[in-house]
């Protein structure tokens, strides 16, 4: 096949389209909102809601394989698309990562460590969960959260009613607070024939719930670095996964704790664009198109900095720096909290 369908036209869909073009593929993007970042990069952008069966059908019929940059595609839309074309990564990976409880059940089921957790629907179940898990804890909506949205910290049990109110009636999960020394993520890929490749783990710093920087190499012991990569491979194999995945980890004195997984290219993998011969976007296109995986070994130290909101005003100054690769997403309006681009500062050869 020569056309790759991408659900979602944000910056990830844009950068996937660029990578696909470099490999000789055309991309069609399906995106409910108008003028998404992928617009001038994809061959075609379909602007229609996920409820529009006719638009979904036409989209699927125009492509050879379907992938996604956005994991919250409604189930009915996926059912229709899957009846027409292969979806990679597969439906199970999507189902598991769409729901924080299914995700933690899956991860603990394959022997990995997560924060202690319990489902919360109302005051009574929250009370019970807090009695079991204790405070501090974090209450999160089970679905649709990102960039720290849909979360409330409970430092003391007296804060429980306010936290529950913040869920606005949505099903939630209470997670015990993990006292981590640092946060890292592994960007890993699995090909159609089952081979696995992982990038060197990156160390992540969040500000206000949003990823601010990713640094490679991460500060990890040799055994932690190996553990991180091996546990990511275990996740991909267990899901019979095809494509790139981001695995977010907490580093603790007792070992690595899995925070969450993202069944797609990941913001904390953007450093690979300037640190590896084959970056996460090319790797994902290779996997979903059935190619062999590429060489993801790291040839430089990199600090990736997200340009969020008005950070984008720093671009003219950054453009004067040496060894700073600028990636902008073509978004017109720099609203607070909006990811406008990122810069990869390449420090020195590894
Ligand atoms: P993303 O944009 O990464 O998808 P998200 O909204 O899904 O974010 P999480 O990754 O669950 O949010 O949490 C955001 C951040 O909050 C984490 O990276 C971590 O810093 C902190 N955090 C979340 N859960 C816990 C926990 N159980 N213990 C300690 N810190 C946590
Ligand atoms: Mg998340
Ligand atoms: Mg996260």
UniProtKB/TrEMBL annotation:
<dbReference type="InterPro" id="IPR040686">
    <property type="entry name" value="PurK_C"/>
</dbReference>
<dbReference type="GO" id="GO:0034028">
    <property type="term" value="F:5-(carboxyamino)imidazole ribonucleotide synthase activity"/>
</dbReference>
<dbReference type="Pfam" id="PF22660">
    <property type="entry name" value="RS_preATP-grasp-like"/>
</dbReference>
<feature type="binding site">
    <location>
        <position position="100"/>
    </location>
    <ligand>
        <name>ATP</name>
    </ligand>
</feature>
<protein>
    <recommendedName>
        <fullName>N5-carboxyaminoimidazole ribonucleotide synthase</fullName>
        <ecNumber>6.3.4.18</ecNumber>
    </recommendedName>
</protein>
<dbReference type="InterPro" id="IPR011054">
    <property type="entry name" value="Rudment_hybrid_motif"/>
</dbReference>
<dbReference type="InterPro" id="IPR016185">
    <property type="entry name" value="PreATP-grasp_dom_sf"/>
</dbReference>
<feature type="binding site">
    <location>
        <begin position="175"/>
        <end position="178"/>
    </location>
    <ligand>
        <name>ATP</name>
    </ligand>
</feature>
<dbReference type="Pfam" id="PF02222">
    <property type="entry name" value="ATP-grasp"/>
</dbReference>
<feature type="binding site">
    <location>
        <position position="183"/>
    </location>
    <ligand>
        <name>ATP</name>
    </ligand>
</feature>
<dbReference type="InterPro" id="IPR013815">
    <property type="entry name" value="ATP_grasp_subdomain_1"/>
</dbReference>
<feature type="binding site">
    <location>
        <begin position="145"/>
        <end position="151"/>
    </location>
    <ligand>
        <name>ATP</name>
    </ligand>
</feature>
<keyword id="KW-0547">Nucleotide-binding</keyword>
<keyword id="KW-0658">Purine biosynthesis</keyword>
<dbReference type="InterPro" id="IPR005875">
    <property type="entry name" value="PurK"/>
</dbReference>
<comment type="function">
    <text>Catalyzes the ATP-dependent conversion of 5-aminoimidazole ribonucleotide (AIR) and HCO(3)(-) to N5-carboxyaminoimidazole ribonucleotide (N5-CAIR).</text>
</comment>
<feature type="binding site">
    <location>
        <position position="140"/>
    </location>
    <ligand>
        <name>ATP</name>
    </ligand>
</feature>
<feature type="domain" description="ATP-grasp">
    <location>
        <begin position="104"/>
        <end position="289"/>
    </location>
</feature>
<comment type="subunit">
    <text>Homodimer.</text>
</comment>
<keyword id="KW-0067">ATP-binding</keyword>
<feature type="binding site">
    <location>
        <begin position="259"/>
        <end position="260"/>
    </location>
    <ligand>
        <name>ATP</name>
    </ligand>
</feature>
<dbReference type="InterPro" id="IPR011761">
    <property type="entry name" value="ATP-grasp"/>
</dbReference>
<comment type="pathway">
    <text>Purine metabolism; IMP biosynthesis via de novo pathway; 5-amino-1-(5-phospho-D-ribosyl)imidazole-4-carboxylate from 5-amino-1-(5-phospho-D-ribosyl)imidazole (N5-CAIR route): step 1/2.</text>
</comment>
<dbReference type="Pfam" id="PF17769">
    <property type="entry name" value="PurK_C"/>
</dbReference>
<keyword id="KW-0436">Ligase</keyword>
<dbReference type="InterPro" id="IPR003135">
    <property type="entry name" value="ATP-grasp_carboxylate-amine"/>
</dbReference>
<comment type="function">
    <text>Catalyzes the ATP-dependent conversion of 5-aminoimidazole ribonucleotide (AIR) and HCO(3)- to N5-carboxyaminoimidazole ribonucleotide (N5-CAIR).</text>
</comment>
<comment type="similarity">
    <text>Belongs to the PurK/PurT family.</text>
</comment>
<feature type="binding site">
    <location>
        <position position="206"/>
    </location>
    <ligand>
        <name>ATP</name>
    </ligand>
</feature>
<dbReference type="InterPro" id="IPR054350">
    <property type="entry name" value="PurT/PurK_preATP-grasp"/>
</dbReference>
